[in-house]
Amino acid sequence: MFVENVQEEFYNIIKGKHVLLFVNYDVDAICTCKMLQSLFRSDSTLYTSLTVEGVQDLIEGYCKHSEQVKFVLLINCGGTIDIVETLQPEEDVVFFVLDSHKPTDVCNVYSRSQVRIVGNVDESEKIPRFEDIFIDSETEDEDEEEDFDEEARAKRKQRKLWEENRNKTLFEYTQFSFYGRASALVMFEIVWRLGKDNIESLWWALVGFTYQTVLGLVTERNYSNELPVLQLHLTRLMPTSNNSSRMEGYRITCQKDLKLVLYRHWTVQSSLRHSISTAVKLKLWSQKGEKRLYQLLAEMGLPISDSKQNFTSMDSELKTGFLSMIESIVNNYDLDSLIYHSFILTIGFSNSYQAADYVYGMLALLDSTLSEKTSKECFLLTLDSLSRYKHNIIDKGINSSKKLLTSVMRQVHTLLDMKQIFSAGPFLYFILEEGSVDSKIFSCPSSLVILARYALMAFNSISRNRRTAMLPLIASAPSTNDNCIILGIPPSTEVIPRNFFGKAFDQAVETIGINPVINYFDSSVIKICKEDRPKFFDSLVTILS
Q: Taking the first listed entry, what is the main subcellular location of this protein, grouped into a coarse class (predicted)?
C-alpha cells in the first residue's frame, strides 16, 4: 500500500522506536540515509543500519536482526521483490519502502498493512488493477468445489481467460526495469513537511537527484521537471547575506553551468577528454580527434598552456569567461548538451562543487577496488563525505574519480582499437578478461555502467552499420572468487532508459539452472560464476532473438 500521509502513516509510527534500516549500496540511498540519520538523532530514534548489495544480503541481514525490531525501513532495496514472500516476517512486523527501482512488486503495492510504500504513486509505472492480478480466495474455493455441469465449465473457461489476461498483464508490467523519482528527493519532501529541512538536507537531496542523471538512469526531462521546485526550496532555505550561516561560507546556487566532468578540479583538457559528450563528438581516441580538440580550444580562445593547468590555477579572467567560451563553440561541434542548469555548493572562498562533482567523488569513495578498504568502510566514508565540515573527504574521492575516468577512457580506446565490442545478434557485448589493464576497477557495478555507456556511444559513433545504434549492450568484468559481473544497458538512442535485461537475465538463469552469486536490486545487473558465463550468454541470445 502507498503511504499518503507521510507524517501520520510513516514517520510518527517509527519515531522513537527501534528501526532496522537497510540501505542499498548507491549514492542516492546514501544521501537518503544521511537525511534519515539527522531525523533519527533529532527525535532520539534508535536504529540499526545495514548496507546491502543484493537480495541475498537483505535476507541474511533480516534473519540476523529480525528478533530485535518490529519496524523495517528499506532504502532503494526491496521494492521490486515480494517482501513478505522473500523474508517470511512475523505478521506484526511492518516494512516501509523507499525505492527508486521500478516496477514495484504488485504484492507490495496491494499489501493491506505489512508493506507500506513511502511516496506517491508513479504514474509511469502503470500499476495493474487489483482485480486483474488477484482473485478472491472464496471465489477460488468455490471454483474447485463446482460440479462438472454447464455452469461449472463456463466458470472454468472464464477463470482460464482471467489467468491468461493476468499473465499477460504481469508480463507487460514487469518486462522493463527503470528508475523512478530519486529517493533522496522523496525523503527531502518528508523532512520539509516535518519542518526539519535545512540547507544541508537540500544539498543531500540535490546530490542524490543528480546521481540518477550522471549514470543515465533517468531522462533529461526528469531532471528539468524537478528544477523549478528545487529552486524554490533553495530560495527559501538559502540564508540572507547578513545571516551568520552565510558568513560561515556554506552557500548553494542554481546557475547555468557545464556538463564537463570535474572541470573545476581538473585541467580543461582533461575534463574535455573524459566527458562523454566531448569524447564521443570529437572522437578523442583518434589522431583526428586530437586535432579537433586543439581546434576547439583555439576557437574558444583558450591558450593551450592554460588548458593544461588546473582550472583553479588559470587566469581569473579566463575562469570567469570559461562558460561563455564554451557557449561560443557548442553549435559548431554539436555540443549543445554541455550547457545545463546545475546546483553549485561553495564552501569558504575557494572550494566550489557542482552536484555532479559530489556524485563522481562519492562513486569513487564507494568503490573498494580504488582503495584498501572493505565495502563497509567505503560505505561509511562515503556517508561521512556529505558532512558539512568534511569536504576533504570528497576531495579525496574526486581525485580517485579522476583515476576511474582515466581508466574508463583508456579501456574505451582499447575496446575500439582491438575491436573487442562484438555483436551477438540481438545485442552488442564486450568482456573484460581477468588480468587486463584496469579490469579490477570495473568489478563495481557503477564503474562498469559508466564504462558501458561510454563504450556504447563511442562504438555507435564510428560504426557504419546503422542497426548497431538500435542495439543494447551487455558488459562483463571479472569479480572476486572466480565470479564475474554482468550488466545490460539500453540502446543509446532510447529516449526513455527502460531496460529489458532484468527480465531476460531472470529467464536465462532459470533456463540454464544456475543460482546467481548476487541478485542486485537493479535487475539489469547480476553476478554469476565465470564458468557459467558462456551458457548464460547463449541463453540470452536465444531468449532475445
A: nucleus
Mean pLDDT by 10 residues, the chain (545 residues): 90 94 98 97 94 96 92 97 96 96 95 91 87 72 58 85 92 94 97 95 98 94 94 88 55 96 97 96 94 96 95 93 96 94 90 96 93 90 94 96 96 95 96 86 94 96 89 95 94 88 96 94 96 97 95
Per-residue exposure over 148-161, b if at least 16 CB sit within 10 Å of its own CB, e if not? eeeeeeeeeeeeee
In a domain, 21, yes or no: yes
Q: How far is CA 189 from the centre of its chain?
A: 20
Interatomic CA distance for residues 106 and 126, integer angstroms: 11
Alpha carbon distance 536, 403 (integer Å): 32
**Residues spanned by the domain of 136:** 130-174
Q: Do residues 89 and 150 share a domain? A: no
Residues 139 and 87 in one domain: no
CA distances from 53 to 50, 72, 76 (A): 10, 17, 10
Which three three-digit cell numbers place residue 110? 496491494
CB 27 within 8 A of CB 211: yes
Amino acid at 537: F
| AA identity, residue 6 | V
Report the side by side order of strands in the sheet with 422-423: 422-423, 428-431, 473-478, 483-489, 525-529, 518-519
